[in-house]
Write a structure and sequence with these properties.
The complex is a heterodimer of chains A (293) and B (437).
Chain A: E1 44-55, E2 58-69, E3 73-77, H1 84-91, E4 101-109, E5 112-113, H2 121-127, E6 128-131, H3 142-152, H4 159-172, H5 176-179, H6 192-204, E7 210-214, H7 222-235, E8 240-244, H8 248-254, E9 257-262, E10 265-271, H9 272-277, H10 282-288
Helix pairs in contact in A: 3-4, 3-6, 4-6, 6-7
Chain B: H1 2-9, H2 13-60, E1 65-74, H3 77-80, H4 88-93, H5 96-107, H6 114-121, H7 128-138, E2 146-152, H8 155-161, H9 178-189, E3 193-197, H10 200-203, H11 216-247, H12 252-264, H13 269-283, H14 291-315, H15 319-327, H16 332-360, H17 364-368, H18 389-398, H19 402-433
Antiparallel strand pairs in B: 1-2, 1-3
Helix pairs in contact in B: 2-19, 5-7, 11-14, 11-16, 11-18, 13-14, 14-16, 15-16, 16-19, 18-19
Classes of the chains: A alpha/beta (293), B mainly alpha (437).
């Protein structure tokens, strides 16, 4: 495992000397591509080890290892094309829909490698939900949008139970008051922010253990963004959330841990506050100070 | 050369504006010419279509009426050759033709001589006795009673009434002699000859006598054939398109299949007829001239069109729909059938209707499998020999009788009405279900 333990954090109780030369400001130099910081988490939900992803001949992710913890929000940040969305889509095997994509390495959820041939993808995707960048509610009624998941997975035994699930999900997503009287109207008739909250309600209706969010607010205005960020904060009580974001301010606001990616490499992982105030890799500091973005 | 180069180098915004302004008039003039040419092409096309419709319509509209003669028919059992208690068989074989001739003789009792009598009999359709026989068989109590009946006139009399026979020609160059014309005029003065709606045209099958011929048989044949075509081609085409678009892996074999399907859409239709002849008739031994075989052949012909249109409809569904469904834990089958298919269905329907409209007008492949026969009876089931409307038109155009010219044109009108309605239906469906995602 090629991670570097810092002087201050311990994995086995012993202090370990840093093994690489540091630049004059005390930061790991730009050329180094090895992950800085503690990739592990307490009580991890997802354990990623040595993941490589190829699109045809081109490699998009290089030897990424990362843990996702329970009840935490971890944000993946980095410049465009650095592989954060690719890693996100590995967690629910949405990369399978891209014919030229190959995923190598182990991604363990609940002790089972999800890249195994005998992994049931349908079951996986019901345990790992996803919210996409552009809100994509089904062109059906609001009720149908939320009821679809519970229905196909057999979560409700009667119509009343289904209605209750729909009500609970819309309430948790903060949308119930606005749509309670028009559940039969098409989901596509809502505003952008409402549609995204509908997609979140749809995702949590089947009680996944992990929710993946791929730049959920990038297509929304600031007020809708603020509401969704509030929502993410509430949701972390029950779900583990991985959020990919372009906005460093958003990452700072919503997440507890942050992982910085650069050109397919995981450069640094750590507590959000530490990443944004005292980054330890030169590339991380370059990014957060706006030298590239 | 260096002059223009130095001009370029010394260009300023205002000098450039002058250059642009001076060129504008020429540009606008070119665009105007282009628009006029386009408009002219459209107008020319429309005029041609209107001319076509008008020429067919003017030839065919008269076929929707048929001349009938009002005759006083006495069901004289002696003339019919029936005894006191006739059996069913007796009624079937009685001398109805003789009865018709007697009725005509009673109408003009002064007519004598064989030649004149023959001319008199030719005023009424040779098939008029069918109707009388039907009435007696249906209601034997009519025997020895009299009633007034409108019987169909002969097709030459029909043509005279519709003004297609030139009275000024020499008697020898006409189909009707002067004497026959006087009789017809006399009947007209008495109000005993009239043009009425030609329901025979829509109800009965083909006949050698134009006044008895109709497209009823051809329309039933077309309906049966298209039913088979639709039942076979639509589900198979949709399922193939769904498989190729959503489930099939992307490799060379699938590419090969795609290329072949696209090519089949362009194969001349008569080749499908040859295929039907060789495989369905010779190898499988299916009944010749039956709508089953016609439907099979047309289904093969329509399948590529439906597959291509359905694939385009599926491709137009945005991938975000599929991603949303898959992300919820739906299987590929559920995502395709419950989300993608309903959204693609309007496009698939439109493509299918257009494919069916093409199949409706096909003649060549059906000629090869024998649907070109002279079919008198209206087909009752899918294995009865029958013909289809385009083939019926083709057969009638071959006949020499003047009355068949108007009937073929009328049949063409009916066919065009069907084609246009189907295409309008396709356009309406497409407009109605056009979605904005």
């Amino acid at each position: 495992m090629k991670t570097i333990n810092t002087i201050h954090q311990h994995t086995d109780g012993k202090t370990i000397e840093p093994q690489l030369a540091l630049s004059d400001r005390g930061l790991v130099p730009r050329e180094t591509r090895e992950t800085v910081g503690d990739i592990t988490a307490t009580n991890p939900r997802v354990i990623c080890r040595n993941v490589d992803v190829y699109y045809g001949e081109k490699q998009a992710l290089f030897n990424v290892s990362l843990d996702i913890g329970t009840h935490e929000v971890i944000s993946l940040i980095g410049p465009s094309g650095c592989g954060k969305s690719t890693l996100l889509r590995c967690f629910n095997r949405m990369n399978d829909t891209i014919p030229s994509c190959r995923v190598i390495g182990s991604i363990d959820i609940d002790g089972k490698n999800i890249n195994d041939v005998d992994m049931d993808v349908v079951l996986l995707r019901s345990r790992v939900g996803m919210v996409f960048q552009k809100p994509n509610p089904f062109p059906k009624s609001i009720y149908e949008n939320v009821a679809y998941g519970p229905r196909i997975h057999g979560l409700a035994r009667s119509k009343d139970e289904l209605i209750e699930i729909v009500r609970m999900s819309l309430t948790r997503a903060g949308l119930w008051k606005e749509v309670a009287d028009r559940l039969d109207e098409p989901g596509t008739g809502l505003s952008g922010g409402q549609q995204q909250r509908l997609c979140i309600a749809r995702a949590i209706a089947i009680n996944p253990e992990i929710i993946l969010m791929d730049e959920p607010c990038s297509a929304l205005d600031p007020i809708a963004t603020a509401r969704i960020e509030e929502l993410i904060d509430e949701l972390k009580e029950n779900y583990a959330i991985v959020i990919v974001t372009h906005s460093m301010q958003q990452a700072a606001r919503v997440s507890q841990r942050t992982a910085y990616f650069h050109l397919g490499h995981l450069i640094e992982v750590g507590a959000t506050e530490q990443i944004f105030t005292h980054p330890r890799h030169q590339l991380t500091e370059d990014y957060i100070t706006g030298r590239f973005g | 050369m260096s002059d223009s180069i130095s001009e370029i180098r010394s260009a300023t915004p205002s000098s450039t504006a002058d250059v642009i302004r001076s060129g504008l008039r020429r540009r606008y003039r070119k665009e105007k010419t282009f628009r006029r040419i386009g408009l002219g092409a459209i107008v020319f096309g429309l005029l041609t279509v209107l001319f076509l419709f008008f020429s067919i319509g003017s030839k065919g509209y008269s076929a929707f009426q048929q001349t009938f003669v009002l005759l006083s028919v006495t069901y004289d059992s002696k003339v019919l050759g029936l005894g006191t208690n006739p059996t069913e068989e007796d009624l079937q074989t009685a001398n109805y033709e003789g009865l018709v001739k007697k009725v005509l003789r009673d109408l003009y009792p002064t007519v004598s001589g064989r030649k004149q009598k023959r001319k008199l009999y030719k005023l009424i359709s040779p098939g008029a006795f069918f109707e009388i026989r039907q009435r007696v068989l249906h209601n034997p109590s009519l025997l020895d009673t009299t009633e007034q009946l409108w019987l169909p006139a002969d097709d030459d009399v029909d043509m005279l009434m519709k003004g297609y026979i030139d009275r000024t020609l020499d008697e020898d160059s006409r189909r009707l002699s002067d004497l026959q014309i006087t009789w017809v005029d006399a009947l007209e003065r008495q109000g005993k000859i009239r043009k009425r709606f030609n329901s025979t045209f829509f109800m009965s099958g083909d006949s050698r006598e134009p006044e008895l011929a109709g497209i009823g048989g051809a329309m039933m044949g077309t309906a049966f054939t298209l039913l088979i075509t639709l039942t076979l081609a639509f589900p198979l085409g949709i399922a193939t398109a769904i498989y190729l678009e959503e489930f099939a892996p992307r490799n060379r074999w699938i590419d090969l299949i795609e290329i072949n399907i696209n090519n089949l859409a362009a194969v001349p239709s008569i080749v499908f007829g040859l295929l039907g002849l060789a495989v369905f008739l010779n190898f499988f031994g299916l009944p010749r001239s039956a709508p089953v075989v016609g439907g099979l052949v047309l289904a093969l012909m329509t399948l590529p069109t439906i597959i291509i249109a359905s694939r385009a409809a599926l491709q137009s569904v945005p991938p975000s729909i599929r991603e949303a469904a898959l992300g919820m834990g739906a299987s590929l089958t559920q995502s395709t059938l419950q989300h993608v298919l309903p959204l693609a269905m309007p496009g698939m329907l439109t493509g299918s209707i257009i494919g069916m409209a093409r199949a409706l007008g096909e003649t060549a492949p059906l000629l090869m499998i024998g649907m070109v026969a002279f079919i008198v009876d209206v087909p009752q089931k899918l294995t009865d020999p029958s013909t289809v409307l385009p083939v019926q038109i083709y057969l009638w155009l071959d006949s020499p009788e003047r009355a068949f010219v108007e009937r073929s044109s009328a049949a063409i009108i009916v066919l065009l009405v069907f084609l246009i309605s189907m295409n309008i239906l396709a356009v309406i469906l497409r407009r109605k279900f056009e979605r904005r995602w």
